[in-house]
C-alpha cells in the first residue's frame, strides 16, 4: 500500500468526513495553547474564551437563522441524534411513546429508535420509493394519539436524496408533534432557515463541513419539550453538561460562517463537478444506474450502480489508483450487508452490491474528476471480464441513467 503515497490522492468520500478547512484550522489553533481557559471560569482566562464560545454560537445560529440560545453544542451528529430522540421521548413519556421515522435514516437515528423499541416504545419506519422519497400521505396516516416525535433527515448521506422538510414540519405542527431533522449532510449544501421552516430540533456535525471530528450541534427551538442528555454541570443551559470543547466550537463557528458566506459558490462548484462525473460515467460505461432522486439531490453526491461488478472490488481497485470512494455509509462498509438505504429503495439485486457513492467536497477539483473518469471505465471493464455475473438473465438494456434502471 506504500504505492498509494506516491500517487496523487483523490478524495471523493466527503459524506464520510471532510478535511478541516485551512481557515478553520487557523481560527481554532490558538484555543489549545494561548486561550486555554475554561469558559465557565469567571477570571480573565475564562472570560476571553467564553466570548469565543458565544461568538461561535452566533455564527452557527446565523447559518440556520436560529436564535443563539437555541444552539446546544454536542460531540457530533450521532450525539445530537441520540439527544433529540431520547431526550424528547423522555420529556413526552406522559403523552405517548410512538416515533415515526424512515427506513433510510443514518444509523445514529435508526439504532436509537431500535433502542427506544427495546425499552417498550413503538416506532414506524416509513418506506421509500425508487428515488428514496417518502410519501407524505403515508406519514400522515402513521400518526396516532401516542405519536410524540417525527424524525426525518434533511438529505440522505448515501444517495443525496433531499426530503420535503418544510412539508413534514407543517404536518408535525398541525398534529402538535415534535419534529427532529438530521441535517448533517444538508448543512453547507442547501439553504437552511429555521425562521421559515418549523423544525423543532436539528442535528449538525462539524466534520462534514470542514470542522474537526467530535463537535456538533443540536438546534432546539424555544418551547420544545426535551430532557437534558448529559448531567453534571450547568453548561448549555444545563441541557448538556461537560466542559466545552472550545477549539472545536470555535472551529464549527468558523466553518458555519464560511458555509454561509460561500453557499452559492460552493453549491455551483459541487454541482458542476458532480454532474460532470455523472455524465462522464454514463457516457463511457454501459449498464450503469444512478441511484437517488435526480431532481431533489444534494449537489455533491453521486450514487452509481455498476451492474455485474462487486462494489467492494471496485472500491479496492479505485483505492489502488489513489481514489477514495465508498460503498454504503462508512458505518456499514466493512460488513457484507447490502446498504439499508438502497435495499429500502428496492434497487435491483444485481445492483445492490454494485453501487458506489462518490461524494465531492469544496476542495475537489476538475482534475480530480478527469483523473477518475480516465481510470474508471478500464477498471469496470476488467472487473466485468472476470465477473461470473455477466450474462445473468437480468435485462439491463432498458436501463436509463436518469431513473433507477432495471424494471421491477
Ligand atoms: C455522519 C453523519 C452522522 C453522524 O455524525 P458524527 O458527527 O460522525 O457522529 C449522522 N447523520 C448523518 C446523515 C451523517 O451523515
Task: List the SSEs and their pairings.
Elements: H1 2-6, E1 10-11, H2 22-28, H3 30-33, H4 44-63, E2 71-74, H5 77-91, E3 98-102, H6 107-118, E4 122-126, H7 136-142, E5 147-151, H8 165-174, E6 178-182, E7 201-205, E8 216-220, H9 246-284, E9 288-291, E10 301-306, H10 311-320, E11 323-324, H11 340-344, H12 349-352, E12 355-359, H13 366-386
Parallel strand pairs: 1-11, 3-4, 3-5, 5-6, 6-7
Antiparallel strand pairs: 2-8, 7-8, 9-10, 10-12
Helix pairs in contact: 2-9, 4-9, 5-6, 9-13, 10-13
The chain binds pyridoxal-5'-phosphate.
Residues 76-78, 81, 106, 108, 153, 157, 182, 184-185, 205, 207-208, 216 line the site of pyridoxal-5'-phosphate.
Short description:
This protein has 408 residues and is of the alpha/beta class. Helix content is 39%, strand content 13%.
What does this protein structure show overall?
With 408 residues, this protein is an alpha/beta fold. The chain has 2 domains: 4-18 and 263-404, Aspartate Aminotransferase, domain 1 (Alpha-Beta Complex); 22-260, Type I PLP-dependent aspartate aminotransferase-like (Major domain) (Aspartate Aminotransferase, domain 2, 3-Layer(aba) Sandwich), CATH 3.40.640.10. The protein is 39% helix and 13% strand. It is built from 13 helices and 12 strands. The radius of gyration is 22 Å and the shape is globular. Pyridoxal-5'-phosphate is lined by residues 76-78, 81, 106, 108, 153, 157, 182, 184-185, 205, 207-208, 216. The site of pyridoxal-5'-phosphate (PLP) has 15 residues, from helix 5.
Amino acid at each position: 500500500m506504500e504505492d498509494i503515497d506516491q500517487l496523487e490522492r483523490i478524495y471523493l468520500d466527503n459524506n464520510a468526513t471532510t478535511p478541516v478547512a485551512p481557515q478553520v484550522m487557523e481560527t481554532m489553533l490558538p484555543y489549545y495553547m494561548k486561550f486555554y481557559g475554561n469558559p465557565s471560569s469567571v477570571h480573565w482566562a475564562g472570560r476571553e474564551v467564553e466570548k469565543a464560545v458565544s461568538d461561535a454560537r452566533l455564527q452557527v445560529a446565523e447559518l440556520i437563522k436560529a436564535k443563539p440560545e437555541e444552539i446546544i453544542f454536542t460531540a457530533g451528529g450521532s450525539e445530537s441524534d441520540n439527544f433529540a430522540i431520547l431526550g424528547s421521548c423522555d420529556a413526552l413519556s406522559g403523552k405517548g411513546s410512538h416515533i415515526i421515522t424512515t427506513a433510510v435514516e443514518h444509523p445514529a437515528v435508526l439504532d436509537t429508535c431500535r433502542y427506544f423499541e427495546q425499552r417498550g416504545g413503538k416506532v414506524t419506519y416509513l418506506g421509500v420509493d425508487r428515488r428514496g422519497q417518502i410519501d407524505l400521505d403515508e406519514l400522515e396516516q402513521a400518526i396516532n394519539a401516542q405519536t410524540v416525535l417525527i424524525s426525518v433527515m434533511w438529505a440522505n448521506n448515501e444517495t443525496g436524496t433531499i426530503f420535503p422538510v418544510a412539508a413534514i414540519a407543517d404536518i408535525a405542527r398541525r398534529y402538535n408533534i415534535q419534529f427532529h431533522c438530521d441535517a448533517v449532510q444538508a448543512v453547507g449544501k442547501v439553504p437552511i432557515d429555521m425562521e421559515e421552516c418549523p423544525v423543532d430540533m436539528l442535528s449538525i456535525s462539524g466534520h462534514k463541513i470542514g470542522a474537526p471530528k467530535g463537535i456538533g450541534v443540536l438546534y432546539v427551538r424555544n418551547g420544545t419539550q426535551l430532557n437534558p442528555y448529559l448531567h453534571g454541570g450547568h453548561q448549555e443551559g444545563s441541557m448538556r453538561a461537560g466542559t466545552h470543547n472550545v477549539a472545536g466550537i470555535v472551529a464549527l463557528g468558523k466553518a458555519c460562517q464560511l458555509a454561509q458566506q460561500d453557499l452559492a459558490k460552493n453549491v455551483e462548484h459541487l454541482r458542476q463537478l458532480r454532474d460532470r462525473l455523472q455524465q462522464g460515467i454514463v457516457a463511457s460505461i454501459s449498464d450503469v444506474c444512478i441511484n437517488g432522486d435526480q431532481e431533489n439531490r444534494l449537489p455533491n453526491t453521486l450514487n452509481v450502480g455498476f451492474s455485474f461488478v462487486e462494489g467492494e472490488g471496485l472500491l479496492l481497485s479505485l483505492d489502488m489508483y489513489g481514489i477514495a470512494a465508498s460503498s454504503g455509509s462508512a458505518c456499514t462498509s466493512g460488513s457484507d450487508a447490502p446498504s439499508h438505504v438502497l435495499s429500502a429503495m428496492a434497487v435491483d439485486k444485481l445492483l445492490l452490491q454494485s453501487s458506489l457513492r462518490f461524494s465531492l467536497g469544496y476542495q475537489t477539483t476538475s482534475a480530480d474528476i478527469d483523473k477518475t473518469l480516465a481510470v474508471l471505465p478500464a477498471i469496470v471493464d476488467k472487473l466485468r471480464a472476470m465477473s461470473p455475473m455477466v450474462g445473468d438473465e437480468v435485462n439491463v438494456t432498458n436501463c436509463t441513467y436518469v431513473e433507477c434502471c432495471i424494471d421491477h
